[in-house]
C-alpha cells in the first residue's frame, strides 16, 4: 500500500515537471516570435521540444505502470524519478540560458 502511494506521487510529480517544462518552452517560444531579432531563441526552443515530449511520455508511462502490482510500482518509481529529474534539469538549463536576456 505504501509502495503504491509512493509510486503514484513520484509519477504525478514527474508528469508535473514535464508539463511545466513544456509550458515554459511554449511561453518562451511565444514571446520570441513577437520579438524582432529573436529567431535564435525560437530555433533553440524548437530543438528542445523532443526532450519535453520524451520526458512527458516517460512520465505518463510511469503513471500508467502504477495501475499494476508491486513490481510495476517499483518500475514506476524508477522511471518516474528519472523522467522527473530529466525534465527538471532541462527546465533549469532553459531558464539559465535565457535568464540574462540573451
Task: Please report the total strand number as a whole number.
Answer: 0
Summarize the biggest pleated sheet: none
Residue runs with pLDDT of under 50 for 5 or more positions: none
* Alpha-beta content class: mainly alpha
- In helices, the fraction of residues equals over 70%
Shape: elongated
Number of domains: 1
How widely separated are the two ends?
A: 48 Å
Order of helices and strands: HHH
Description:
The chain is mainly α and 102 residues long. The chain has one domain (1-100). The chain is built from three helices and no strands. It has helices spanning 2-34, 39-65, 70-99. The N and C termini lie far apart (48 Å). The mean pLDDT is 94.
Compact overview of the structure:
The chain crosses the membrane at residues 6-28, 49-68. By secondary structure, this protein is mainly alpha-helical. Helix content is 88%, strand content 0%.
What is the strand and helix layout of this fold?
Elements: H1 2-34, H2 39-65, H3 70-99
Helix pairs in contact: 1-2, 1-3, 2-3
List keywords for this structure.
mainly alpha
Amino acid at each position: 500500500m505504501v509502495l503504491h502511494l509512493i509510486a503514484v506521487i513520484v509519477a504525478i510529480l514527474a508528469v508535473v515537471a514535464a508539463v511545466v517544462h513544456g509550458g515554459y518552452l511554449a511561453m518562451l517560444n511565444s514571446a520570441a516570435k513577437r520579438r524582432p531579432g529573436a529567431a535564435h531563441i525560437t530555433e533553440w526552443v524548437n530543438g528542445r521540444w523532443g526532450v519535453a515530449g520524451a520526458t512527458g511520455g516517460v512520465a505518463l508511462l510511469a503513471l500508467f505502470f502504477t495501475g499494476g502490482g508491486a513490481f510495476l510500482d517499483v518500475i514506476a518509481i524508477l522511471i518516474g524519478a528519472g523522467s522527473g529529474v530529466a525534465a527538471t534539469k532541462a527546465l533549469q538549463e532553459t531558464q539559465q540560458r535565457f535568464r540574462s536576456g540573451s
